[in-house]
Every structure is written in C-alpha cells, then in structure tokens.
Amino acid sequence: MSETVRIALADIDRVARAALVRAGCDEANAIATSDVMVRAERDGCASHGLFRLPGYLASLRSGKANGRAAPVARAHAPGVVRVEGDNALAPLAMQVARTAVAPLARAQGIAAVAIVDVLHFSALWADIEGLVADGLGAFCMTAYLPSVAPAGAKTPFFGTNPFAFGFPGEAFIFDFATAATARGEIQIAARDGRPAPAGAGVDTDGRPTRDPHAILAGAQSPFGGHKGSALALMIELMAGVLIGQPTSAEAAREEKALGVCDGGPPRGGVLMIAFDPDRFGDAAGWRAHAGAFFAELRALPGVRLPGDRRRLERARIAREGAAVPRALWDEARRAAGH
Amino acid sequence: MSETVRIALADIDRVARAALVRAGCDEANAIATSDVMVRAERDGCASHGLFRLPGYLASLRSGKANGRAAPVARAHAPGVVRVEGDNALAPLAMQVARTAVAPLARAQGIAAVAIVDVLHFSALWADIEGLVADGLGAFCMTAYLPSVAPAGAKTPFFGTNPFAFGFPGEAFIFDFATAATARGEIQIAARDGRPAPAGAGVDTDGRPTRDPHAILAGAQSPFGGHKGSALALMIELMAGVLIGQPTSAEAAREEKALGVCDGGPPRGGVLMIAFDPDRFGDAAGWRAHAGAFFAELRALPGVRLPGDRRRLERARIAREGAAVPRALWDEARRAAGH
User: Fold this and answer.
1) Residues of B in contact with A302 (CB under 8 A)
2) In Å, how far from its chain's centre is CA B68?
3) Does the distance separating the beta carbons of A78 and B293 come in below 8 Å?
4) Mutate which of A241, A248, A279 to test chain B, going by most B C-beta atoms within 10 A?
5) Is B289 in the active site?
6) Which domain holds residue B89?
C-alpha cells in the first residue's frame, strides 16, 4: 500500500480547480469537474476522486477535451432533450442536462436527455444525486473504452459501462460497472503483486485467471455472466447507437486515429432518463410506501444496501479529510503550481 | 427426466384456450393468455410455456384472477399512461398497454406505462416483442413473490423480478430474472430430480446448496451478487412502490390474507418504458449504426447473444412441434375437457 495523507476537502477542491485551469479549463468547467472529484472523496470513493485528475489533465493537454466548452441543451421531442457537449469534460454538461431534464420530467412524467460529445470519467451516482434530492427518479448509463469480453467471447469489446439508478424519498442510489471488477482494482493488484478477485477476467486464450497482468493483456469479464453482458450491451446501444455516439470499440478506434490515447476518458455519450413519481398514479402514497419498504428491507439480518457505505463515510471524511496517496497529492499540487 | 411428447403449436393453443375458458376466462383473455404460452413454446422456453397453465388455472379457480376483466388505459401525464387491469391475467392488459404506449412514445420520444392490478406469469420478452417489431425500444420489469434473499441476507424478500430490454433495427431483446436462476428452472429440477445450477440459492440456514427442494424452502440468490440484488431492489421500487402496487413481500402477505396462495401469480404491477429511436437525434443513422455494431459483435469468436437460441429454435419447433412433458399435456387436456 502506498503512503496516504489526510487532506481537507476544501484543499482538494482548491488544488484540483487550479490544476484544471492551468491545463486549459475555464472557471465553469474547472468548478464542475473538481466538484465531482471532491464529492467522490467526500464519500470515500477514492477510485472516482482525485485519482481521476491526471486523466482529466491528460485529455485537456492532448487537446481531446475542450476546457472552454459551453454545453447547450436543445429540445428534440416533447420528452427528449439533447445536450451538445462540444467535447467538454462531462461534469459541466451533466449540470446542463440535469437543469434541462428536471422540468421536462415534471411536465411529462418521464423524459430523457442525451448528453453527446463529452468525456465522461466520473462516478455516475454523482450525476443523478441532484435529481434524486429534488424528488425525481433517474436512470443513467455510459459506455467507455473496450475492456470487457462479451459472454462467450475472449476479446475486449464492451466498456466497463456503468449503470446508475436513483429513487427519491429515501434517496436510494446505486451505481455499478457492468464489468465484474473495477479496472483500477486489477491495475492495483498488478502493481502490488496480488491476485485479482476470482471471476475478474480471462487471459488472451479466454481462460479464467486471477493473474492481473494476464487479465489486463486479455479481457475483463462482465459481472453475473451472460446477464451482466446483456446489460453492458444495452448500454452500448443506449449511450452509443441510440444517440449517434461512439460505442466502446468505436471510441478506441477514434482515439487511435486522432492520436489521443492519453489515458483520459474517450469522447462519447451519456443517456439519462428522469421521471417524476408524483405523475405515476400514486402521488399521495409513494413516499410512505418507499419508507415502509426500506424499513422492512433494512430489518433483514445481514442485509447490505448500495450507498450505505458512502453515507457512513460522508460525515467522518467531511470532518477528518480524505485519505489521498502522497504521490497523487504531490502530483496534483505540482499540476496546480502550488 | 419425465417423458415428453411432441405437440403442434396449434394444438397447444387450442387446448390452452379451452382450459382457460373452462376455468372462467372470456375469449379475449383466453386468446391473449394462450398466446404468450404458445410463443414461449415456439421459442423453446418451456419454463414460460404450457408449464404455466396450471398456475393460471389455479388463480382463476381461486377467484384471484378475473377471467372476464377488460383492462382500460388512462392517460396520467403527457408521457405516462396507466392500465387498470381489474385483476386480469397480465397478457390482455399488456396488449392494451402496448397499444397505449406506442403512439405516446412516438409523440413524446419516451413514455411509460404502468400496468396495475394484473397477475403476471409470462415471459417479459413476449411483452415487448411487438413494440420492438414496430420500431420502438423498450424496458420492462415486474416484481413477483418473495423468493430471493437480498445481498447479505438469507431470507426471501425480493421476487425473481425479471428485467427485459429491447432495441429495434436488429430486433435485439433480452429478458432475465434478477434471481441467479429462473424459479421455473428450479421447480423443473425439483420435479425431474436433478440438481439446481450452482449459485442458484441457499437453504433455510443460508448455506449455498444445489438441492432444488432446499432452495425452494430456503431462498434463491440474486444473480451477480450485490449488483443483481440492486437491480432486484430497483424493480421492487419501479413495478411496486412507484405505481402503488404491492412489492413482492406485500404481495405474499396479501395472498395469505385473502386465502389465495394458489400457486398462481400474485396481483401486482408491471412497469414498461418505450422510446422511439427516431426522436433521439440520429434518426438517419441509428439503424445502420446498430447493424454495424451487431456485425462486429457477432464476428467475435465464441460470442453468445441473448435471444439467439430462441430464434434458432423457432423454425424447428414451428415445424416439429414443442416437447411437452406427457403428464403436463395430459393435465392440460383434462382441464380443457378434451
């Protein structure tokens, strides 16, 4: 394990913003992008916290990301809006998307927003948390770069393709990769000479292995066999094909053609669906119903619910600061010129 | 294995309809309900074929299902319609739902339909196949009776809660239970004296087992650990809480209170979302894009896509008839008075 230091969230925000501005972001983009990293650190999700800064900076420096993009929302159908990202880092475009889709969901009952030409590198739960806090439900999904072998196959084709869902009232949110294991976890196992979790992936011959180097050369596996594979496929269609954006395989070819394989996120789309529970026929009852449902669920011995760990971490980390690897903190401060 | 007989699909349809009518269905309900069983048999999905007839009949005989229900669609918001099922077997209500939601999805881009007070016992892919054939995409989900232990817990709380997705163009459809294994498969293993698939569930002490009887007494497991468990939870919220319908646990209590634990499906809701890919900003491109995506995916050695087995079976079974256990066929014919 690398040495970590405790850093106050305000300091992480200050350093991340400065580094983003130095790499070419305007204020609006720097604030939005730093915010998603700080919120991940606040909830103990190091893998989507400051850990992502070097990738963001690389994609700004290579010219793949437009640090001065001003994403614009345009209505496309009564229930569909499209946010043209202009190659922005995703966080600012996702703000624009939330602002556009929320009134539409209230007016229509359900609405979708296609966020296109953005570079998405953050946690999906952070993209829907604001909608859920405002009383809306949401689905969100995005493709990535090819790293997961479809069920039966042995070469990477699907991205790690995360899927998030949120429901208001109890503010229930989950967010998971359709890959069995986060790619970062396999990379860290390789670095530390530890085996990868069972089921994480296959070698170049398609044989299951726990050798992290063999998996990184071969392919990650989807979670849950053919069912997780089907969800990953769904996400390629919804966040790629449906909205005229690259699938994971296409994103990788585009990066190669443009010479921007910089380790940062690829250009692509995000698909978000928002709905208003007050418009589905049980406006008077759904909040109490949700409360009773979660009370009964939480009473089951041993049960673990998504998001609970994040909520527990939140108060402690806000007080104590986040644990950041010293090397990463030093790198961030250098990038910020601090 | 029990002895099977080859039965022409037309004969299955004739016998199933007659049995449903004798148990109290009017023509419209009998035709719609037989149709979903015949389509399952046509595609080699025995677990959703004639295998379901005894459950349908039991729920009609107990008075839980209303065989003469006339489900009605009512607009609820510009993008939301509600189908009041009047305790119908689901198939007729799902027909009404498709007819109501399709024009709404075309007009709005995306629309939802809440099907309430129905008894759902069929394959979800059959519920969305018609929409996909008509050029729409769809999500569909429904809760059931408590049979799956949430991640970490060991008592049944979630239903087997299936989730289906369809995308037009290539007419791609998947449909899976969020349980590791379909309950019908475990029931068939119990009937035939075979072990259940590994990972299918736990005994009453929470220990993993492959004894199908022990799993039916204990709890099924969700597929893919905490991720599948999160999806099952999402479905309880969407097909239950959101639309004022019983969650799986509530459905079981209702059955007990009403004295209708008849082995048939419980009263509950189905939530379907339909969308029109022509309204998402790439009307000119998405069909060709989908074609290229699937061509590349299918070219991967070893790859297996959802629905492929069904499509392969279809032509053969239409020609040869479906393999039906003799005891089930005899039972169906007796119920039909044939």
Assistant:
1) 152-154, 206
2) 21
3) no
4) A241
5) no
6) 4-179+222-282+308-312+321-336
C-alpha A297/C-alpha A291 separation (Å) is 10
The structural domain count of chain B equals 1
Q: Is residue A194, in this structure, part of any structural domain at all?
A: no
Q: Do B108 and A285 touch (CB under 8 A)?
A: no
**Structure confidence at residue A254 (pLDDT):** 96
A122 catalytic per annotation: no
Look at residue A310 in the predicted model and tell me its pLDDT.
87
> pLDDT tens-digit profile of B24-81?
999 999 999 999 999 999 999 988 999 999 999 999 999 999 999 999 999 999 999 9
Chain A / chain B CB contacts < 8 angstroms? 233
Tokens of B90: 């689901």
Q: How far apart are CA A119 and CA A97, in angstroms?
A: 14
Query: If DSSP codes are grouped into helix, strand and coil, which group holds residue A166?
Result: strand
Q: Select the residue from B280, B294, B303, B310 to test the A interface by mutation, using most A Cβ atoms within 10 A.
A: B280
- Chain A closest CA to B85's CA: distance in Å? 14
pLDDT per residue as tens, chain B (338 positions): 579 999 999 999 999 999 999 999 999 999 999 999 999 999 999 889 999 999 999 999 999 999 999 999 999 999 999 999 999 999 999 999 999 999 999 999 999 999 999 999 999 999 999 999 999 999 999 999 999 999 999 999 999 999 999 999 989 999 999 999 988 789 889 988 999 999 999 999 999 999 999 999 999 999 999 999 999 999 999 999 999 999 999 999 999 999 999 889 999 999 999 999 999 999 999 999 999 999 999 999 999 999 888 888 998 999 999 999 999 999 999 999 98
Report CA dihedral (A45, A50, A51, A56) to the nearest 10 degrees: 130
Q: How distant is the Cα of A192 from the closest Cα of chain B, in angstroms?
A: 26
Angle B148-B151-B155 from CA coordinates, rounded to 5°: 45
Mean pLDDT of chain B: 96
This model of the complex carries an ipTM of: 0.97
Q: Please check whether residue B110 lies inside any domain of the structure.
A: yes
Put simply, the answer to whether A114 touches B280 (Cβ < 8 Å) is: yes
d(CA B132, CA B306): 15
**Helix residue ranges per DSSP H, chain A:** 9-22, 27-42, 53-61, 90-108, 124-133, 183-192, 212-217, 225-239, 248-258, 286-298, 308-320, 326-336
Beta carbons of B144 and B159 less than 8 angstroms apart: yes
Mark yes or no for CB contact A155/B300 under 8 Å. yes
CATH of the domain at B262: 3.30.1370.60
- Is A167 an interface residue toward B (CB < 8 Å)? yes
**Residue A248 covered by a domain:** yes
| Digit-coded pLDDT (tens) for B263-275 | 899 999 999 999 9
Q: Which pLDDT belongs to residue A183?
A: 84
pLDDT reading at A278 higher than 80? yes
Spatial separation of the C-alpha atoms in residues B306 and B165, rounded to whole Å: 11
Nearest-neighbour CA in chain B from A84: distance (Å): 11
How far, in Å, CA of A53 to CA of A59, rounded?
Answer: 10
Residue B155, domain member (yes or no): yes
